[in-house]
Every structure is written in structure tokens, then in C-alpha cells.
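Work Package 3 committed the consortium to producing structural models of liganded targets before the mid-term review. Because experimental data for this complex are still outstanding, the team generated a predictive model from sequence and the ligand definition alone, so that downstream docking and mutagenesis planning could proceed in parallel. The input record is reproduced below exactly as it was submitted to the modelling pipeline, together with the SMILES string for calcium ion.
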Amino acid sequence: MIRLLQIICIFQLFSCNSTLNDISEVEEQPVESEVIVLATELTSPWGLTFLPDGSALVSSRTTAQIHRVPAGGGTPQLVGTVPGVSFSAEGGLLGLETSPSFENDRTIYAYLSAQPTNKIVAIEIAEDFGTLNVSNVLLDGITTANRHHGGRLKIGPDGHLWISTGDAFQPELAQNSESLNGKILRIGLNGSIPEGNMNNSPVYSYGHRNVQGIAFGPDGTVYASELGHRTWDEVNVIHEGLNYGWPQSEGTTGSFGEPPLTVFHPDDCSPSGMAYARGSLWMGALGGQRLYQIPVENGELSGTPIAHFVEEYGRIRTVELAPDGSVWLFTSNTDGATWGGTTPKQGDDKILKIELE
Ligand SMILES: [Ca+2]
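The resulting structure, written out as C-alpha cells with the ligand in place, is given here.
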């Protein structure tokens, strides 16, 4: 894989941002032997979280089911269906995250699109993985909509639960301090408000359009991927209390709010899940149908972004670092996307595994 990356880097040295999608040579590189298909025939997979035994739980956005996938891959086993989920063009059962004390509390956290508002819940998983039940509501009041839910959950190095939201197709909410929409939120695992948040609220940063990826660098830097409208998608370095500009600014268009770390054209990108591993962010692109590798160090770019698997597997929704150091990806070709959607390929949707060494 490392050799592959070096080859791609050579192509990128002769490219600029506007031609990131024009690297057809990459498709001829021997990628196949480096990508393992762990599971197939999934329906609109969205959230992914690993358990202490190395197996994983996967959410289906459009069925509200949670399946368990063995550490080495295989047929996903149904754990249960999360009650109270409202489905819409982009809504449903979204992000999942595992309690750090799962072996004792059997708890995971989930982002649900719901009526009257979206919410974050705790879910207990039975010992035999055969049933589940919602045990607690950690947060509600996130305005719901047909689109722009955000939906990613990550527990940070601070031990708190980080939540990405969207503007619910009401751009003004991103700048409204009373709203939980268009924000990056941070709460305690019992729903409490950590010190350092804005206005003693769940809000950590604001002025976001639709954030579907959060990743933490080894130094604690918080990175987030954000879907733009038609001009620029963004990757941002997130600091508490800062304004990231939407809707007055989009990417590098407009000077209102914090400038992004880097931007991509939505046709080449439309980012969702993101993970940090081995000196880079690994970011899935939906409309752009690729995996971006973005070298970073201490909150700054440390190299030119690299596009992998361009149009090879279709839309990529979710990217997570597995306990064994590999990276798992979800394709997202069954999601019925209203913008940038694709016809599912044979076996879609799939979980793919990439070994980084
Ligand atoms: Ca911005």
C-alpha cells in the first residue's frame, strides 16, 4: 500500500486541485490486492463503531437496524431495530459510538433523526447481541428536516461525546446561538455540559452547513469535514467557540468566520466520514466517489491531498480506524441520494478494509 501511495504522490505533484478528479492512471495501479471486502448486501450503511472484541456495529440509515459484523468480516447479524426513528431523504439512523466501558454497561450511543426533533440516545445491547433497547436520551432539540442532519458521533480524547449537526436546510440556524443546528456539539456521556462549551450549552463551534465527519489527531487536534453547497466543501480545524462562517461564507468564498484548512469542489468531493491514521486524514467522498488522503500535522496541511479509488467503488460514506490499525470504509450506493446518487453495483453496499502497511 505504501508503494501505491508513493506512485499516486508522483501523479499529484503534477496536478492542482482542479484536476484532482483527473487521475485515471491511479485506477490502473494494483489496488485490488490491497482492498478486502468484509461484507456485502448492506442497506444504506451509515454509522460504524467497534466493540472491544474487534467486531463492529453498523447502522442502516433507512431501516434503523443495527447489525454486528465479525472482526474478520462475514455475514452481518441483526442485533435489533432502533425504535422512534423518522426517515427522510437524508435522515434516519445515523452515527454510532461505543461506550468506553462497553464490557460493563453494554452501551452504545446513536444519532437518530426523529420527531419532533433529532436526538442522541444511549442504547443497551444484550449480552447475546440479539436485542437492543433505548435506555436514555442524552440530547434532543436538534431541528429535524428532510436533509442536512449532520449525524456523526465520536468520543474525543477528552472523553466527551462529539456530535456533528446540519443546518436542517435553514442556513440561518448555523449562526443562531439558540439553535443546535449547523454546529459541532460536545456533551458528557451522561448528557451533561462540559466546561469550555459556548454559553453553558452543548455548542462547541458554529457556522457549519452540514458536518458528517469528525476526527482527532494524535495531538488532540479536532478536524471536521463539511458539505458545502455548490462551491466549496471544507475540512476545518475546530476550536471552541469559533464561527466557521456559513452561510455568509462558503469555503474560501467570503471572509466571514474561520478559514478552512482546505477545500474541495463538491463535484469531486461531497465529504462524509473521516478518520485519522498514520499522519493523514482519510475522508470519504459521496458525489466525488473516492477516498481522500489529506496529510496533516498539528492542525496544518503537511502535504498535497491524494485521491484514491476514484469512481472505483462508488460513493463512500463512512471511514473509521479499526482496532487492528486498518481502515474500514462503507460504500453508499443504496442510499437513494437525491444529489450525486448512483446505481448500486453488484453486492452493494459493501464494507471494505484497507491495510495501511
Ligand atoms: Ca466555513
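Reviewers should note the following from the model. Helices lie at 2-13, 102-105. These observations will guide the Year 2 experiments.
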